[in-house]
Design brief:
single chain; alpha/beta; Aspartate Aminotransferase, domain 1; Aspartate Aminotransferase, domain 2; 2 domains; eight-stranded mixed sheet; 14 helices; 15% strand
């Protein structure tokens, strides 16, 4: 067996399942799951129709590079969304969801024969980043988030000696679980560090289309253009239809950016065998070409957060995120020393609401676990169910204080 497999940590949901074994939730309440970030809104009919209209695609092997019509649809969407013009053949590559692509990129760009090969990622973080680094033979350096800056990663705290060994940097903007969006100045700092040390930046942007401000979140390609980096050197952006179009089961997204990096990534993927089904490609074209369903989806999340936020604000410290569908709730101000795991287990047992303890989304770094004392609530269910869950959370917190 590959000895690197032994370095992998259990996934947060595996750890939570182990912790909840033996818990029998109160049967007086129907179960409500706010733990997993799986969209629950209905899949748009235009996507379903595109699938049924193109089932003959099942009779063909797909190409890894994707059909020209799909690459052109992605190119057009990037131009509309970010004002960025890409070369559809060399700077765009369809992928089977951003998750597998985020993992595979590390296997492409990491040179494990270089001493101290390092991957830098935010903390808390999406665990694929760590697993990708470990299985590529690299070490992982975690960058704690700064609560004073909307829980954005404190990149300035990374020692120059670490940057000098870095081969890949994962960023997530809008962030999971914090919802923080990186500003242009932060991108400029990371681009300058990349130029100095030669590492690749992998920008995970799968939450980019669920936002609450008037301005849509700044994307990495957009930031690069604003900073006169039209070659997107050492930058790869990852985007998915899962959250944008409510199709997590379709496994469809794309990567875009540095043509030289994508050329090597395509070579890796040709052998890896991750080509997207022709049926899914046609449905993806329909999704990227339509914005009306995205606007409607965003409106549903805005209305949902508007109803849930005032309820939860009565019992814990919550703030509207820049983007995404998570609330990154801080219990410490109202419950000093609160244990996020114990809170989640008690909530499940007494009120049958599942949330994710923040400490399970992070690693201890620089002597602290930046997720401790927080819980992540994924407001993915329909509005009434999320409101009901918020009311139960309020009842649970008040009972703890009584």
């Amino acid at each position: 067996m590959n000895p690197l497999l032994a370095r992998l940590h259990p996934y947060p949901f595996e750890r939570l399942r182990a912790l909840t074994q033996g818990i029998r939730p109160n049967p007086s309440f129907a179960p409500i799951g706010l733990g997993i970030g799986e969209p629950k809104h209905a899949t748009p009919e235009l996507i379903k129709q595109a699938i049924t209209d193109n089932l003959d695609g099942l009779a063909r092997y797909p190409t890894t590079v994707g059909e020209p019509a799909l690459r052109e649809a992605i190119k057009a969407w990037v131009a509309r969304r970010y004002g960025v013009t890409l070369d559809a053949l060399t700077q765009v590559l369809p992928v089977s969801g951003s998750r597998e692509a985020l993992f595979a990129l590390a296997q492409t760009v990491i040179d494990p024969t270089r001493a101290g090969a390092t991957v830098v990622c935010p903390n808390p973080f999406y665990q694929i980043y760590e697993g990708a680094a470990l299985l590529a033979g690299a070490e992982t350096a975690f960058v704690n988030s700064d609560p004073a800056r909307n829980f954005a990663a404190d990149w300035a705290s990374v020692p120059q000696a670490t940057w000098a060994k870095t081969q890949l940097l994962y960023v997530c903007s809008p962030g999971n679980p914090t919802g923080a969006v990186m500003p242009l100045a932060e991108w400029q700092m990371l681009f300058e560090l990349s130029d100095r040390h030669g590492f690749v930046i992998a920008s995970d942007e799968c939450y980019s289309e669920i936002y609450f401000r008037d301005e849509p979140p700044l994307g990495s390609l957009e930031a690069a253009m604003q900073l006169s980096r039209s070659d997107f050197r050492n930058l790869v952006a990852f985007t998915s239809l899962s959250k944008r179009s409510n199709v997590p089961g379709m496994r469809s997204g794309f990567v875009a950016g540095d043509a030289a990096v994508l050329k090597q990534f395509l070579l890796y993927r040709t052998y890896h065998g991750s080509a997207m089904s022709p049926v899914v490609q046609q449905a993806s074209i329909a999704a990227w070409n339509d914005e009306a369903h995205v606007v409607a989806n965003r409106a549903k999340y805005r209305a949902k957060f508007a109803r849930v936020m005032p309820l939860l604000a009565e019992v814990m410290d919550v703030a509207l995120p820049d983007a995404g569908f998570y609330l990154w709730a801080d219990m410490a101000k109202l419950m000093p020393g609160a244990d996020d795991v114990a809170f989640a287990l008690g909530l499940l047992a007494q009120y049958n609401v599942a949330v994710l303890p923040g400490s399970l989304l992070a690693r201890e770094a620089q002597g602290v676990n930046p997720g401790a004392g927080r819980i992540r609530l994924a407001l993915v269910a329909e509005t009434d169910e999320c409101v009901e869950a918020a009311q139960r959370v309020c009842s649970y917190v008040r009972a703890l204080h009584s």
